[in-house]
Backbone:
């Protein structure tokens, strides 16, 4: 099938770029002795998780139990749920997942650990646990110090749980200048101290898992971590560019759209808005809701649910109703979550059609 | 089933409030002689479209062909696609819809009309057309004046199309003060002039269709319109409150969430973020991403995809891991689009479970 045969809006993935991104991250983590456990929240697609596994990932990462259920067949040896699972029904479902893979869950409370232990004991399975520590982002995670040891000890005492190490997410660190690199060095100091305390308390710490999109090519600056969980790298987006972690030519995802109205002078309306892109903005001094491939100087200024407003002031190229254009989104993970299918393209050809099977798995 | 048995995040609809909203709009439009043609973008659920039809709606409104396909069985007598349909495959699908209802499409260009005519002629059906006029919002719509007459004449000449009137969307008008009401009066003047010009040119104008959420209880201030297309009124949300068009007690939709982390002092993390709510903000001086029913003074300050950050400074009520809370969203239409199911609740009981069948229908 040709791209011209697709209906719009359609989410396209340039397969050449995606494969380059996958190979590059596999090579980077291998070169630095990091286990690679990609977060599948970006693509939500088992076939793409399998591509990551074929390229040397040790396992995959998900956030929600519903994603684990979809993804487990792609990752039979290792599956990390990087989110505390709270609530009986969810834990019951998670135990079914645990019967088909080596499951690890990251969490930051005795309550979450207790629920997991009860469920694991009930199902007769053993579940690994990473203690989530707060490396400065202030979202989730135990503050480094005695609380980490206390939680590790509590986990150690609970039936059917196995303490496997620590997890962190340095989502607050941007690497645009020296301050960012210094912050990354402080994270390493923090990890060093936590690992040392845990070892003193008698724990082995086989897994030290972390990473974020802006830091994804600088994880070797955190030598105490041994496992990376990048997500966005497979496709990249305008926010990845804004964080300095990739360039425009590394963005594999674009949305194919049709011009549906040019009635208002100096503007065209495209057939995708917040229901197609999400309303997520962009950082790093960039503006607008996307990068128009056919005319980068155009400004994707505003959205309603089904309407994208593209301002054409100073744009030399003309657009008419029925023209098709491509827009690189600000935040590809939330855009993927809005699409039923992903089209893998090479040149003008649609080579692959994937259903986004873990789309909208909120629970 | 009890609400306590639901997994979270879950989208709850208070049926008492929803029914009051439906009845109130039915009564308002009836009292003012307005045909009611609700936009189903808010609920995306055929069973709720049928409720609207039972309460006297003449038909329903959708934006995309994929929504029309899902909704057509709920509205066999009248269906309005309030969006220009551009592209051969979509038009072909739309003609299948036209075989099962009396279809009308609003559009603002000769190109869109020509495509529709060609498709209708090919399928042997007649399709009604409303000319979309720009009432000041600057999104889509022909600028009032000779262009409206020119487009009506072009439509009139095209086979298998039937000119049925005009449509407009005054989404730019807020009714917080006299200026808003004056703007609404200007819209009526505009309609009067367009209708008069059309009649002079020999056209009957049976349908004058418009309305927006902020103006929904003031459409009688636009006496030249005869059809209202409200959407959000069935559920309402924080933006409806911000626009002055409803009060907190009119909001039927809330999202049920679980507290999953309290590791960071003064904050709790709930298990829904931008993948559950969308990133849409709120207007009218309000802040945050939702209204926490259990503690309205709490601030839902920040979101990642799966994490909601709720600041608890100055909040007297304590929350612990595993607690369940309800949050009224900023923009319910985009939130509904993120959920697989809607739960209709009354008191503590889940009375209805609806699949959001037109969710994610982008095409």
Residues:
């Amino acid at each position: 099938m040709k791209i011209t045969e697709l209906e719009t809006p359609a989410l396209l993935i340039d397969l050449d770029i995606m494969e380059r991104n996958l190979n590059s991250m596999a090579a980077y983590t291998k070169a630095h002795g990091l286990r690679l456990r990609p977060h599948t929240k970006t693509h939500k697609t088992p076939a793409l998780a399998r591509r990551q596994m074929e390229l040397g990932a040790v396992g995959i990462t998900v956030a929600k139990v519903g994603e684990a259920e979809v993804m487990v067949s792609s990752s039979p040896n290792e599956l990390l749920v990087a989110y505390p699972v709270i609530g009986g029904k969810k834990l019951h479902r998670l135990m079914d997942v645990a019967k088909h893979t080596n499951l690890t869950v990251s969490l930051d409370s005795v309550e979450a650990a207790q629920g997991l232990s009860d469920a694991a004991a009930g199902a007769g399975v053993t579940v690994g646990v990473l203690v989530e520590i707060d490396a400065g982002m202030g979202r989730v995670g135990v503050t480094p110090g005695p609380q980490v040891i206390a939680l590790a000890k509590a986990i150690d005492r609970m039936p059917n749980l196995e303490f496997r190490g620590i997890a962190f997410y340095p989502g607050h660190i941007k690497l645009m200048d020296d301050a960012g690199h210094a912050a990354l060095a402080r994270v390493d100091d923090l990890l060093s101290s936590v690992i040392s305390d845990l070892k003193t308390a008698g724990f082995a710490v086989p897994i030290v898992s972390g990473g974020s999109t802006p830091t994804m090519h600088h994880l070797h600056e955190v030598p105490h971590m041994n496992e990376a969980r990048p997500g966005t790298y497979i496709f990249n987006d305008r926010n990845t560019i804004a964080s300095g972690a990739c360039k425009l030519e590394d963005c594999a995802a674009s949305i194919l759209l049709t011009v549906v109205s040019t009635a208002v002078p100096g503007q065209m309306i495209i057939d995708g808005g917040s229901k197609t892109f999400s309303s997520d903005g962009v950082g790093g001094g960039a503006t607008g809701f996307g990068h128009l491939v056919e005319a980068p100087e155009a400004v994707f200024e505003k959205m309603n649910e089904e309407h994208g407003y593209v301002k054409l002031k100073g744009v030399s190229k003309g657009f008419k109703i029925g023209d098709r254009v491509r827009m690189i989104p600000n935040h590809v993970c939330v855009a993927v979550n809005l699409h039923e299918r992903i089209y893998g393209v090479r040149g003008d050809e649609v080579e692959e059609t994937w259903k986004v099977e873990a789309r909208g798995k909120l629970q």
Observations:
- Residues 178-200 of chain A form the longest helix (23 residues).
- Residues 75 and 340 of chain A are 22 Å apart (CA to CA).
